[in-house]
Write a structure and sequence with these properties.
By secondary structure, the chain is of the alpha/beta class. It has 2 domains: about 120 residues, Rossmann fold; about 60 residues, DNA polymerase, domain 1. About 40% of the residues lie in helices and about 15% in strands. The chain has 10 helices and 9 strands.
């Protein structure tokens, strides 16, 4: 089936990540128990609540600060955003080229602090999301991948046919969920550079 629309994940697909930078800082601030990892990503009930918009930024920072009152909110924000390394220029050029032929979207499990950070990472664009028809972020939608509801919201709100839509993500659980809804999928495994994969599209 011909692809007419592409939905990109952000972290690990378009935005380079180094989770260890945040992980090490949080271990130093809060101790081992507060910052378990799952599939290479930080795992905690607090972070998941923040990611679906159940709590706001002040509550998120306040709860973390309670674990280490001597650590400032500014230091926590800096450590939290440290994982976001940037968006390589070749991926920006890739999106510009793909945008001439396809409807482009973002679907990301993210949060307000990270949104404010990565939206400034596209030189020449007022906001990174300006490269897309629409950006869907978990903290605005009240649900997160791999819950089927978040994919259904994107498909419905942008009138997308799943069989004509390619979903691109770096986590197998998220890709498998998309497949349940009949989307075409691409799993970005280590060593697969999106800009190279799409260079002949």
């Amino acid at each position: 089936m011909e692809v007419k629309s592409i939905i990109f994940d952000l972290g690990g697909v378009l935005v380079d990540l180094d989770m260890s930078l945040t992980h090490r800082a949080f271990q130093h601030f809060f101790g081992e128990r507060a910052v378990e990892l799952e599939n290479g990503y930080l795992k905690s009930r607090l972070l998941r609540r923040y990611e679906v918009g159940a709590i706001d930024t002040e509550t998120f920072l306040g709860e973390l600060q309670r674990l280490a009152p001597a650590v400032s909110k500014a230091a926590i924000v800096e450590a939290w955003n440290a994982m976001l390394l940037g968006i390589p220029e070749r991926r920006l050029r890739m999106l510009e080229k793909l945008g001439e032929r396809y409807r482009l979207f973002v679907l990301s499990n993210t949060n307000a602090l990270h949104e404010a950070c990565f939206e400034k990472m596209a030189p020449g664009y007022e906001k990174f999301s300006g490269l897309f028809e629409k950006a869907y972020y978990s903290h605005h939608l009240g649900t997160r991948k791999p819950e089927l509801e978040i994919y259904q919201k994107v498909l419905q709100q942008s009138s997308l046919k799943p069989e004509e839509t390619l979903f691109v993500d770096d986590l197998a659980d998220n890709v498998q969920a998309a497949q349940k809804l009949r989307l075409q999928t691409l799993l970005i495994e280590p060593g697969l550079e999106p800009a190279e994969y799409f260079q002949n599209w």
